[in-house]
Amino acid sequence: MNRPQQGSHSLTRTAFCLQVVLVYTFMATHVCAQSFPANFTQVAVATGLSAPTIAAFSPDGRIFVAQQSGQLRVVKNGSLLPTPFVELTVDASGERGLLGIAFDPDFATNQHVYLYYTVPTSGTVTVHNRISRFTVSGDVALSGSELILLELDALSGATNHNGGSMVFGADGKLYIGVGENANPANSQYLDNYLGKVLRINTDGSVPAGNPYTSGSEARKRIWAYGLRNPYTLAVQPVTGRFFVNDVGQETWEEINDASTGGLNFGWPTAEGTSSNPAFTNPVFKYPHAATGNENGCAITGGSFYNPTEATYPASYVGRYFYQDFCNNWINMLDLSGPSPVRSTLASGLPGFSVGLTAGIDGNLYYLSRGTGTLYEIIYTANNICQSLKDGNWHDTSVWSCGRIPTSADKTTVRHAVTVATNQTGQTLRVSYQVGGRVLFAGGAQLRLGE
């Protein structure tokens, strides 16, 4: 079974949501009937996205969101900027398009961002996927800064199984997940890039330490093989542990540990666990034929939870979170024991979720292709009152957890507010959802606790 196409979808079930919008200083968000553990909820960070595929945090706190049709959007200080960072000409048929984002470990110095996208057929150029590097200039790409690092193999008429995820490892090298273009034989063939995880330097060259030191240029860049559609990758901070989320066909979704180079994960001979000693079995797998939140059809996101400053309970630190595209849940793995232990963080999420990632603020984020929305999952029991970013505060001396801002303070409240009114519509009381944010002119933020 193939992962559902990444084009437009019609939702298969009705989501009942309440949206409250307050004019002038207050903006609210969707409040939907999802299922979370006690004190967890989700809030909409950005809406109006078109077929989003992946999101990534820049080290300075902005969120970059790839749209399949080639636009890289920027969320800054809680707002989706109207001008894209860059607009690329792509082939967006099927699962092709703008699919991957990674920020250079030395971003503060070089301002480099890396993108994975599908180059359309034009003249003598055949459709293929490309990895390029761009230089950031403010909130857009510096004109003329694209540096092509790697042109992948020409693609067949099949538009699925492109992979596209990119991450930097703890070693500073760029790791790239590439699908097998719906041709399973590619996965075991070491002289093309398809069905592999690649490892390259930031200029596209072959780094020291790759498992194959001779042979074709493709072979020398291979880190792992025997993969079907490694749609997302994840690196654990500090430890450098490296997981590959591989979308299965008929029976199993896989989470593979590719921390060591040269491993063969078995596709197409094996899906799930194999007794063949030549293959490396997944750390964890989940079936297509099960019940509840054990069941799924396509793993489209995964992230270790090891933030610099955790906003979730301590028991969540070190867990691996992953999501399913079809059944719209987020599960988590406790990796502390001899075998992973699965539990559920969220279910009943808005349709067709992708791109799960841990933000630099200590919260998890994901995209819904069905609603065109970037969501943030917050833990509301924290007693937090702190400035998150510097900015143009109206009067820093008067701000505290207990003070409610007024319109004179030039504030915008995002995420959720509750308004009590009398029968004539006069506002009697305004209270803020715990964990909400107040955004100030100039980009300052105050996170509200209890």
Automatic annotation (TrEMBL):
<protein>
    <recommendedName>
        <fullName>Glucose/Sorbosone dehydrogenase domain-containing protein</fullName>
    </recommendedName>
</protein>
<feature type="domain" description="Glucose/Sorbosone dehydrogenase">
    <location>
        <begin position="51"/>
        <end position="287"/>
    </location>
</feature>
<dbReference type="InterPro" id="IPR011041">
    <property type="entry name" value="Quinoprot_gluc/sorb_DH_b-prop"/>
</dbReference>
<dbReference type="InterPro" id="IPR012938">
    <property type="entry name" value="Glc/Sorbosone_DH"/>
</dbReference>
<dbReference type="Pfam" id="PF07995">
    <property type="entry name" value="GSDH"/>
</dbReference>
<dbReference type="InterPro" id="IPR011042">
    <property type="entry name" value="6-blade_b-propeller_TolB-like"/>
</dbReference>
